[in-house]
Recover the amino acids of this structure.
């Protein structure tokens, strides 16, 4: 199989490329990535010289380029997106461009070239927040941020290409990922690296918002199952089964970095902050045999250890961005 992975220089895409190249010894991958602030070729140093891997710098909104690449592959896995909720609150135009129009560009090419599989990497955030119980794939979409709305746009557009144009679309909706190579704006790498530097951890609101944490390799395994065994036109939730509050998460990070609670700084809440995400993952477990890891604390500890051991990877990103984005966002 030859795959077009878009956004492969980001956090999940790079972990997915490594997973596929290691597991399927004959598969080839083209990685199309624009290298925005979140795209980082350091994430893929170990595969850069693999003869089954090729990197193309470019934008998924570039129809001419996409039209050249798509006929070369059997499947498209679209990870490319603007992904940070806080940034989408400050500026949302780039989210609409990439997450909606970029998805449209890929779908048009998949339609034209009759691509055998198109996987849209969506998110649990498209369902919005849920106080009790869990969202199934049939739940109503109710996104609350410009980020989740733009992702819902791409998700619905992908679905419509299956219904109207018979493009073999499959959609995944995953919960909050964590693991190595996550850009240090998301809460786990931000809090871990801040703690390692004895900087404050800006905890939003009352700290009681709940997220379901999914180890990035488990997400990759879920997408792999959907790619190989999923049914065209279907949606699959992919969760970790690890729901905890942000305060509980922060306490674990402080424990694993050996730092004290005085580093926690309560800051104003995120506007429109979703209270709780929760996925019902019975479908992917039952139909595709998905089984996430059950050792959350161990995986979180190993993630903390990875950031502690890989200062070279994150320090320059924070030095580059701290003056502008972080200062504006956190005032710390
Ligand atoms: P990320 O921000 O780390 O990486 C995004 C990548 O997309 C970057 O490499 C960036 O350069 C690239 N990109 C952005 N715009 C592009 C464009 N126009 N053309 C080509 N490349 C472009 O994101 P991530 O956390 O790895 O998320 C990957 C996907 O998974 C996204 O679609 C996201 O919505 C989805 N998702 C993420 C999570 C999570 O917890 N991180 C959970 C569920 C779903
Ligand atoms: O649920 C899947 C989604 O998870 C993905 O689709 C998004 O791409 C990804 O960014 C993530 O969205 P969240 O908004 O849940 O992740 P974030 O890491 O930004 O925040 C996680 C929680 O931590 C959230 O409740 C807000 C809180 N938080 C976050 C930051 C950055 C803080 O309290 N302080 C912070 O500084």
């Amino acid at each position: 199989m030859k795959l077009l992975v878009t956004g492969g220089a980001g956090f999940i895409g790079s972990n997915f490329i490594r997973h596929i190249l290691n597991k399927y010894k004959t598969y080839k991958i083209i990685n199309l990535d624009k290298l925005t602030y979140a795209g980082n070729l350091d994430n893929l140093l170990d595969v850069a010289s693999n003869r089954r891997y090729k990197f193309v710098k470019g934008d998924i909104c570039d129809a001419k380029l996409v039209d050249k690449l798509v006929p070369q592959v059997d499947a498209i896995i679209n990870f490319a997106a603007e992904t940070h909720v806080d940034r989408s609150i400050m500026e949302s135009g780039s989210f609409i461009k990439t997450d909606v129009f970029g998805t449209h560009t890929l779908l048009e090419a998949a339609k034209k070239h009759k691509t055998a599989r198109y996987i849209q990497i969506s998110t649990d955030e498209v369902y919005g927040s849920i106080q009790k119980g869990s969202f199934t794939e049939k739940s109503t979409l109710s996104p609350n941020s410009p980020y989740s709305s733009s992702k819902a746009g791409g998700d619905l557009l992908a679905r419509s290409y299956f219904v109207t144009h018979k493009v073999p679309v499959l959609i995944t909706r995953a919960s909050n990922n964590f693991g190595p190579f996550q850009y240090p704006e998301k809460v786990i790498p931000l809090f871990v690296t801040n703690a390692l530097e004895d900087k404050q951890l800006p905890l939003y609101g009352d700290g009681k918002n709940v997220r379901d944490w999914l180890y990035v390799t488990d997400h990759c395994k879920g997408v792999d199952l959907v790619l190989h065994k999923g049914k065209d036109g279907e949606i699959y939730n992919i969760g970790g089964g690890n729901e905890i509050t942000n305060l509980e998460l922060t306490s674990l990070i402080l424990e694993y970095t050996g730092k004290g609670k005085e580093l926690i700084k309560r800051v104003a809440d995120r506007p429109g902050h979703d209270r709780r995400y929760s996925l019902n993952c019975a479908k992917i477990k039952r139909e595709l045999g998905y089984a996430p890891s059950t050792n959350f604390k161990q995986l979180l500890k190993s993630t903390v250890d990875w950031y502690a051991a890989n200062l070279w990877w994150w320090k320059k990103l924070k030095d580059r961005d701290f003056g502008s984005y972080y200062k504006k966002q956190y005032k710390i």
